[in-house]
Design goal:
mainly beta, five-stranded antiparallel beta sheet
Length: about 240
Amino acid sequence: MPQIAKWLLFICSFSTLIAVSPAVGREFPSDSEHRGIVKYDPYEVFPENRLGNAVYQNGQLLISEPNKAITHILPLPNEGRFLYVSQDETGKLEVGLKMLDTDLKPRITEVAPGIFYAVFVTEGIVYKKIYRVIQNNSVVDLLPSSKTADGVTPGKVGVLFFHVASMNRPTTEGGQTEFALRLHLVLFEEERLRHLDYPVTNTLPNLKLSWIDETSASFTLADGREEVLSIAQFQ
């Protein structure tokens, strides 16, 4: 097998890709403002906005996609792993996860246009994350301080989810463990993340979320109790 084919086979073996909702095609500039190398410490993309460009670390090729330009990199915990956005000449976007060959296969799902739920494991730690593709085809971690995003529930106006903020073990015999869950809302018309200003306490690290209509939603606790929320409560 030719050497270049071996490289492509190796590169494609350990990345997970998902297509993004079609985007408007854009030109790949070649003017004086074009940067040859774009740094996303500790990674570098070279050359910027060029079909077939590649991601490097310390001069070592990590990944490249023929007929696509890698436009943005978001480093993940522990070196050698990152999330990336690529675009072909028609404007179609894809979001991928590059992991090490020793890692478990990651999972990434587009739960709503431009909003992604990813589950991956590095160094034995499970990460559950929510990402969003924003202007200039860059990608942001909507809740960078947490690795426990869950309950992702898309609706007509946005996406609801929660994360486990803390766990309190019982202090008396026969008591129950309690979990403090924080609820969040991503509205399609806004780039910022909204938050419910109080924690929800549950006896399980889980919460059933449901949309009622475009202005309200509900959650159900482990004991069956239900509470209705208004979008206006998320700040």
